[in-house]
Amino acid sequence: MDNKYKKIEDFSEQEIASAQKKAKEDLYYPNYHIAPITGLLNDPNGLIYVNGLHYIHYQVHPVDAIHGLKYWALCTTKDFLNYQYWGLSSKPEIKEESHGVFSGSAFLENDQIKILYTGNHRDDENVRHQTQIIGTLKDNKVIDKAVLIEHDFDLYDEHIRDPKIIEIKNKEYIYFGVQMKGSKVGSIAFYDYETKKNVCNIKYDFENFGYMWECPNIEKVGNKYFVVFCPQGAKSNDKIKFFNYDSTVYLFADDIDLEKQEFINPTYPQLLDYGHDFYAPQNYYVNKELISIGWFGTFAIVYPSDKNSWQGMLTIPKKVTLENNVIKQYPYEVFVNNILQDHKTINENKFLVKKNFRLKFRTNKNLDLKIGNGKDYIQLIINDEKIIFDRANQEEKVISDLEGIRYVERKHKDQEVELWVDNSSIEIFVNNYESVFSSRFFIKEVCQIEFDAQIDFDYWDIKKINMKICD
């Protein structure tokens, strides 16, 4: 049987045990990022904070490291150090999700956690039908699934997915990414939650901005609407450079006019992350703070971990703020306060490290930083004009048509820089938290950091998360 659409029940106990053993023993398996026990993890889903508990679902193909039949898995945490893993929270059960439980969100209704997501189905002629489905989370499983919005082939082509809910002028709407019929351009559709009728498909003036806008998030940050989406097939121009096969962008708007079908005074979209491996973030509120978690991976790439039956992880949680009309992303304080240990303040150019660490420093000079073991390394370069991340000298290569350096404009002479390193990943905050690089890398033994000149920096070791299996 082709494993792409093979159900979890059709894998033998031996196949599952073998995959789990390989993943568990892989040197690249993360210590403090959420990753699949086996299989391929991609989009974070159903993120919600209720009664002191973070519910973190994610899409997963549960055995093989391939994009195949998708399920949801669930873990919960109070502190981002101690987790409970509840197994597969949603499986393909009804016809409308026969070919995968696709991405979606969570919200509270009458004190119940409701799950809103896309069901993926292909008919006998292989035509894709994508249906918006609603269910209820009970005992950490999605139950009582019901079709909410059918696929409208008069309005949209095959791409119509990733729903969330929003309140605009005291009225609730469901919105999701679509590919418009005829023009085949991406957009965001809005439906009245009460009537389930289409009220708006956003129009815009951005040229060559993709055939599908996946994974939209629209939240209020300050007095602006913060709009995040993933424009599949978008092309670079003189205003934006796309490095990856698919990227994630954001814009701000003063308002959303559903009658005119437009964002009011939108800024031109900019990259949310400049690294090699970032996609499909989902935002949710925690005590009025906007928290974001992304898929630490991307499409059209083969990682060295694939042979050990796992691929993908989630990023660390980040707090999103608007400061002087500039977006900033910070490591979320609750995560930071619970995950760190053994702080040191150091003045050196070379320092021996453990494989998992956090590093912070300030500089107003140019800089070259290498992380690795001398022979194999990744590199951060700060010059007068750009901040550059390069993984060309890692030990094991990823297979991608879009390798190469990643860079962002140096926006400030005085730089505050923060790095988080796990067994096969790095998250770099630069431009005083205005820019982020999220990239995977594959060096078996990371044991040192080396600056090109002596510098003051702060260093922390990072604890390993505890994932208690509760399923």
Describe this protein's structure.
The protein has 471 residues and is mainly beta. It folds into 2 domains: 3-331, Glycosyl hydrolase domain, family 43 (Tachylectin-2, Chain A); 343-469, Jelly Rolls (Sandwich). 4% of the residues lie in helices and 55% in strands. It has 2 helices and 34 strands. Strands 24, 25, 26, 27, 28, 29, 30, 31, 32 and 33 form a 10-stranded antiparallel β-sheet that branches. A 6-stranded mixed β-sheet has the order 21-1-2-3-4-34, with no helix packed on it. Strands 5-6-7-8 form a 4-stranded antiparallel β-sheet, with no helix packed on it. Strand 7 (128-138) and strand 8 (141-149) form a beta hairpin. The two termini are 27 Å apart. It is an enzyme of class 3 (hydrolase).
